[in-house]
Design brief:
Number of domains: 2
Order of helices and strands: HEEHEEEEEEEEEEEEEE
Number of helices: 2
Largest sheet: 5 strands, mixed
CATH topology of the largest domain: Immunoglobulin-like
CATH class of the largest domain: Mainly Beta
Structural class: mainly beta
Shape: globular
CATH architecture of the largest domain: Sandwich
Length: 199
């Protein structure tokens, strides 16, 4: 049986549908207490909805090359597995004693068979037992909405659904969790540039 609705009913049905939620963009300016731009800050938005949207990244690596961790700061969503390829000819011993993830990959070359999975959000500081100058950070986020500030201190977060969030900014020079700013934010297409000052 083929039922055809009158044209007027079809139009009414369309107008009764809720409007689509369009993603928007957020710009954040990060500066220090002297008003100078801060590069390399991790800017992110937290909320219950953001937490529910988290998916682990497909791949994530921290390479050891020339006795240096590359990248120095790795930002990943919660649940992501990270591999630690050693491209040096010397052995490294990668470890973290941070509360969110404690692990050791003892003296090795090449790529370890098992990656390290970071299930808990927070910041893990990494070191090498053999080379004290080697240090890196894994920033594990409970949100898919994040970005880095550029050399001008500007971060762009794209494709973020409108809604209520907490705006946070982390940088490797911050000494404690208490130093990480928390700003309530109601995001919409009209939200202006946000400015965050780090201690």
């Amino acid at each position: 049986m083929n039922l055809k609705l009158p044209h007027s009913l079809l139009l009414a049905a369309v107008f009764l549908l809720p409007p689509p939620t369009l993603a928007t963009q957020l710009q954040v300016q990060v500066q220090n207490s002297n008003g100078q731009p801060v590069a390399g800050a991790v800017v992110f938005l937290e909320s219950a909805t953001a937490s529910a949207a988290v998916k682990p990244a497909a791949t994530a690596n921290i390479i050891q090359r020339n006795t240096t961790f590359i990248p120095e700061v790795l930002v990943i969503p919660r649940g992501t597995a990270v591999t630690f390829p050693n491209e040096d000819t010397v052995r490294h011993h990668v470890y973290s004693f941070s509360p969110i993830k404690q692990f050791e990959i003892k003296l090795y070359v090449g790529t370890p068979t098992e990656p390290v999975v970071f299930e808990q959000s927070g910041v893990a500081a990494l070191g090498c037992n053999i080379h004290d100058q080697m240090i890196a950070w894994v920033v594990v986020l409970d949100t898919p909405y994040y970005s880095h500030s550029n050399n001008d201190g500007l971060a762009m977060l794209n494709d973020v659904p409108p809604g209520d969030y907490t705006l946070r900014v982390w940088h490797k020079t911050l000494l404690s969790e208490a130093d990480v700013p928390k700003q309530p934010l109601k995001l919409s297409a009209e939200t202006p540039l946000q400015q965050v000052t780090l201690k």
